[in-house]
Amino acid sequence: MDILHSVAKVRARVAQWRRDGRTVGLVPTMGNLHDGHLSLVQAARQECDAVVVSVFVNPTQFGPGEDFDAYPRTLDADAARLRDANVEVLFAPSVEEMYPLGANRSWVEVDDLGDYLCGADRPGHFRGVTTVVSKLFHIVQPDVAVFGEKDFQQLAILRRMTEELLFPIRIVGAPTAREADGLAMSSRNGYLTEQERALAPRLQHHLRQARQALEDGERDFRALEARTAEALGKDGFGVDYVTVANARTLVPAAPGDRELVIAAAARLGKPRLIDNLTLTLPAS
Ligand SMILES: Nc1ncnc2c1ncn2[C@@H]1O[C@H](COP(=O)(O)OP(=O)(O)OP(=O)(O)O)[C@@H](O)[C@H]1O
Ligand SMILES: CC(C)(CO)[C@@H](O)C(=O)[O-]
Ligand code: BAL
């Protein structure tokens, strides 16, 4: 595996692969890799002849007061894991390489799907994500790019961006990888104290309870959200949102919606954890 830091070197490597007739997969990450990231790499591996994983903590998707400076940067350990996974290229650019003119003035923004869920709590976040992912798409020009369903709204927004901006790239969503106790894997789980870590799976537990209630016939979505938020609060979470949403539009679900996502973001000590479950209601 090669670790490349410059846009020019990645472009040259991909051009060589293209001359050799090889297909290319891209897995964008912010590093501090865990088994969830590795499952994305496996998915890319299955689809493509050569895999690029990017590790870049993207400043433009962090809001003021968020953890840009503290975000774990563990490039040596990440490289070792990616080497074991037979990745061809690890692209680890500097901020200057990705934002050559300094303060960014050119943005890619999806003017939809961002009004609810994390978009409501993190103004500007998804504009930073779509901008940096567009840059990565232009640099690598992959056939396939893989993103996790754990970041459900991010995946929906990136699918929309890819389709509307006519990127000739197939977006693959990978299922959420979980710890044995159900907690969704996340780099930010590393911020949890031992006591918080023991509580953290309760987020998934309450989402499962909510899904069960829907399967059992609950149709008052707002009441279910309130009950779930209250249960999380009693467990010690600071709840940012619990929303039963239309899985396609991400708008809070209305009567008649059948493809649903139950999504939540909740703070537990330092980190803000997110998780979601999807379900399809039977036709009534
Ligand atoms: N548990 C997981 N299962 C599947 N995919 C995941 C999981 N966690 C993260 N991903 C995906 O990995 C990619 C890179 O995410 P990122 O580097 O932000 O990891 P993260 O663990 O989610 O970190 P953070 O704690 O910042 O949310 C994204 O597409 C994300 O959806
Ligand atoms: C897609 C991404 C790598 C863009 O910085 C980031 O938002 C993430 O890690 O999910
Ligand atoms: N996985 C989402 C990246 C972020 O929280 O900034």
Automatic annotation (TrEMBL):
The active site is at H37 (proton donor). Belongs to the pantothenate synthetase family. It is found in: Cytoplasm. Gene3D superfamilies: HUPs, Pantoate-beta-alanine ligase, C-terminal domain. Catalyzes the condensation of pantoate with beta-alanine in an ATP-dependent reaction via a pantoyl-adenylate intermediate. It catalyses: (R)-pantoate + beta-alanine + ATP = (R)-pantothenate + AMP + diphosphate + H(+). This is Pantothenate synthetase. InterPro entries: Cyt_trans-like (IPR004821), Pantoate_ligase (IPR003721), Pantoate_ligase_C (IPR042176), Rossmann-like_a/b/a_fold (IPR014729). The gene is panC. GO terms for cellular component: cytosol. The keyword ATP-binding applies. Beta-alanine binds at Q61. GO terms for molecular function: ATP binding; pantoate-beta-alanine ligase activity. Pfam families: Pantoate_ligase (PF02569). GO terms for biological process: pantothenate biosynthetic process.
